[in-house]
Amino acid sequence: MSLRPIAASIVCGLLLAAAALAVADDELLAQTQTTPQGPPPALSQPQTQPHGLSRWFDPSTAPFLPIPLIDTDPYSGTTIGLIPTVLVTNEQGEIRRIIAPDVFYNEYFGYGAHGRVFAYPSANTQWSIEAGAKQRVESEFDGEYAAGLLRQDAWSINVSVIYDRSGSDRFFGIGNNSCLCRESNYTDQQKYVQLAIGRNLSHTWQLGYVFRPWQVAITPGHIPGIPSIEQVYPNAYERGDRNQFLNRLYLTYDTRDDLTVPTRGTQWVVYAGIASATGLANANLYTETGIDARHFWKLPRDAVLAGHIALRYMPYTSDLRLLPFWALSSIGGDRAIVGGDQPLRGFGTARFRDRDSFSASLEYRKRVWALNAFATRIELELAPFVDTGRVFSSSRSDPFSHLHWAGGLGVRAIASPFVVGYVDVGYGSEGAAVFTGLSYPF
């Protein structure tokens, strides 16, 4: 289980709790206004405070907020549990830290627990850390540190340390027309360290470098009722670890007015990279090049129109038959990752894979409700959206033909300036899919 579903549950749980408080306050006000005024009582009764178990469920007296965890995923199944959450805010009501351990049960992998911290020391620096495991198969450690986010200094840096063993991943074969009937399951164990260094040429322009040593092991799947990958795709299944060293250069042009909750501006990223099997510049596996663009139009009545487009090519591969399928371009799921997976929110993550990919998304983000609660300001946003895209095997192919489509509605809870939790419900040709996450999908 990643950080994103947990954080979304936290923020959305805060919103629901705040709504309950607002309703209770309205009811109390209504009773005050409708009750006939009589003579004052001889002695005023002191207001009783919650005590015992009840104080744990009152936000004004509880040592933490008992946020329910209810997460559903197209691949991971249903997870239910409890997140005892502690929020640390500053004098301006901005969330500076979220401490959120949890205990839960997943229908595929049994009971589990995590410990996690999200920290926002300033608008320029953020970090997070998580460690946890389930009763069967899955375990993880994720750590990330980012500094220079505002590009006001000469350099920006982002460091990630990831260990993730996931048992819910799916493979349907390669190609834009891969069949749902050929679904298989595998266990994906990834270990990597990623270093991204950016030289800020100005507040708008940044030249950067990414280095990622990456080790992946694909082993048989464990989802009941779904064939394991070695049974359906024996040629794609390879025992043992696969190593990859990715070197990527990128150029960014960014005029967005905010990194977390942008309302206007644009971001363009152009990149090129090379991946090798055994070192920095030898035994090349493939090259990559691509563009990722996002634009935001501020509209009347507290609304934003957000658009995203991404195109990725792999001009050179040593041998497509030897290239691991997990290194190919992919579309599907809820996230737009520069140089990685692209969204198609009516389908599961990486539903379609091939050498090259095209993806585009458009959504209308409309604020519909806001209130002050739990020492911070929480806002609710509705966002109807549409996604489209395809994968293809040749750079001569038309990226805008034979597209897959998905549409749906997103519900977002925003605790500015650093936290956005979302629930997106999408529908495509293979049915519906529900995603939760932290930060906007793009």
Secondary structure topology:
Layout: H1 3-34, E1 65-73, E2 77-89, E3 95-99, E4 102-106, E5 110-122, E6 125-134, E7 139-147, E8 155-171, E9 184-200, E10 205-220, H2 229-232, E11 241-254, E12 265-276, E13 284-299, E14 303-313, E15 329-331, E16 352-354, E17 356-373, E18 376-392, E19 404-415, E20 419-428, E21 431-438
Antiparallel strand pairs: 1-2, 2-3, 2-4, 3-5, 4-5, 5-6, 6-7, 7-8, 8-9, 9-10, 10-11, 11-12, 12-13, 13-14, 14-17, 15-16, 17-18, 18-19, 19-20, 20-21
Radius of gyration: 24 Å
Strand residue content: over 45%
| Terminal residue distance | 20 Å
Low-confidence segments: 21-36
Give the CA-based shape: globular
Helix-strand sequence: HEEEEEEEEEEHEEEEEEEEEEE
Helix content: under 10%
Number of helices: 2
Task: Report the major sheet.
Answer: 19 strands, antiparallel
- Strand tally is 21
| Average pLDDT score | 86
Q: Which structural category do the helix and sheet elements fall into?
A: mainly beta
